[in-house]
Specification:
Order of helices and strands: EEHEEEHEHHHHEEHEHEEEEEEEHHHE
CATH class: Alpha Beta
Largest sheet: 7 strands, antiparallel
Distance between the termini: 34 Å
Strand order of the largest sheet: 10-6-8-7-17-15-14
Strand content: 25-35%
CATH topology: tRNA-splicing ligase RtcB
Number of domains: 1
CATH architecture: Alpha-Beta Complex
CATH superfamily: tRNA-splicing ligase RtcB
Number of helices: 11
């Protein structure tokens, strides 16, 4: 489907791939589009909804500046998925043992591994930049963590909370896939919060001139610009490695409870909360994707639904109006508080029928009914991606 709405009330237009947008999300998009350094236009994906700092599902090209709150605090959050050599007929009839094996292998919420599980070379490489370049210049980051050096190393290969998840899925051929959603854990959160605060402090004299104080930014050449670029890319690398490590640990755990299998497809590992340097509409820009994935021509990506609906492996079409991007998921249509108010355990049981997962009040805010229709989201971005595989979960572990 083509662009559904074009808003021209701002310095640059806002191009939106859905006609269902909350008024608060529209306000956020217009605020972003009024900033003097935004290039050409702002794009909003079909899963667009109100966020903190900036709209979730927005793609923001900037020249000579980056907005830390637009990147957010779960820096590098994204997806990884791979296909296994077994199919549905080779899975056990009762999948509870599989779910328990996943929960045993991967700490969730604030939990961490009891010891470092990742390769020493990975830890050393990440630590060199963090300790010698980032924390040396910004020791307050270490104080904010209120943690020892070992904490982030032991969180490498852990899920986190909120809407992060691990799933065992079946595709249209009944082949089995592992898919998971996670980011840069506690260390990424601290880096994000620190630099968002620093941007506001640096702009204290001028912050009243912004459309919203959360849109405080670092300008190229300013005191902390390069430090933020280095820190945000470190957190993005950490998130990428975190997903790889979880996939490795999951593979080990599942081999104990499933028939022998091999990985038959190279893992697709993509960010959906991040900033990158790219060229669009004749200019090199800092492109922030907040709740959006890269969808350049031929590029594979992952678009999850909710814990009871379909997800998709997609191939990008390289659409320039979306800045070669697409949605990062179904997108919420109601807040967590509203979901808890409107749904009960019976609703959760019905909406996750056939899925081996927790079905208690702790996960009601993640009920499928709290999310937009993934089918509508996919229909609205047919100009941006094509579906390569359709996945449906049979096991889901929530953070």
């Amino acid at each position: 489907m083509p662009i559904k709405m074009v808003i021209k009330k701002s310095k640059v237009p806002v191009k939106i791939y859905t006609d269902e947008v909350q008024s608060s999300a529209l306000d956020q998009l217009i605020n972003i589009a009024n900033l003097p350094f935004v290039h050409h236009h702002v794009a909003a994906m079909p899963d667009v909804h109100t966020g903190i700092g900036a709209t979730v599902g927005s793609v923001i090209p900037t020249k000579g500046a980056i907005i830390p709150a637009a990147v957010g605090v779960d820096i590098g959050c994204g997806m990884i998925a791979t296909r296994l050599s077994i199919n549905a007929t080779q899975l056990p009839d009762n999948l509870k043992k599989v779910r328990l094996a996943i929960e045993e292998a991967i700490p969730v919420g604030f939990a961490k591994h009891k010891s470092i599980r990742a390769k020493n070379s990975t830890i050393k490489s990440l630590n060199k930049v963090l300790e010698e370049r980032i924390i040396t210049k910004h020791p307050a980051i270490n104080k904010m963590m209120k943690q020892t050096y070992r904490t982030w190393t032991q969180q490498l290969g852990t899920l986190g909370g909120g809407n992060h998840f691990i799933e065992l899925c079946l595709d249209e051929n009944q082949d089995v896939w592992i898919m998971l959603h996670s980011g840069s854990r506690g260390v990424g959160n601290v880096i994000g919060r620190y630099f968002i605060g620093l941007a506001k402090k640096d702009m204290e004299r001028h912050i009243a001139q912004l459309p919203h104080r959360d849109l405080a930014y670092f300008s190229e050449g300013a005191q902390h610009f390069e430090d933020y670029v280095e820190a945000v890319h470190w957190a993005q690398d950490y998130a990428m490695w975190n997903r790889r490590e979880m996939l490795r640990l999951l593979t080990e755990a599942l081999r104990q409870v499933l028939l022998p299998f091999e990985i038959t497809k190279e893992a697709i590992n993509c960010h959906h909360n991040y900033v990158a340097i790219e060229e669009h509409f004749g200019e090199q820009v800092y492109l922030t994707r907040k709740g959006a994935i890269s969808a350049t021509e031929g590029e594979l990506g992952i678009i999850p639904g909710s814990m009871g609906t379909k997800s998709y492996i997609v191939r990008g079409k390289g659409n320039p109006d979306s800045f070669c991007s697409c949605s990062h998921g179904a997108g919420r249509k109601m807040s967590r508080t509203q979901a808890k108010r409107e749904f009960n355990l019976d609703d959760l049981e019905k909406q996750t029928e056939g899925v081996e997962c927790r079905k208690d009040k702790q996960v009601i805010d993640e009920i499928p009914g709290a999310y937009k229709s993934i089918d509508e989201v996919m229909e609205n971005q047919s100009d941006l991606v094509e579906a390569v595989h359709t996945l449906k979960q049979v096991v889901c572990v929530k953070g």
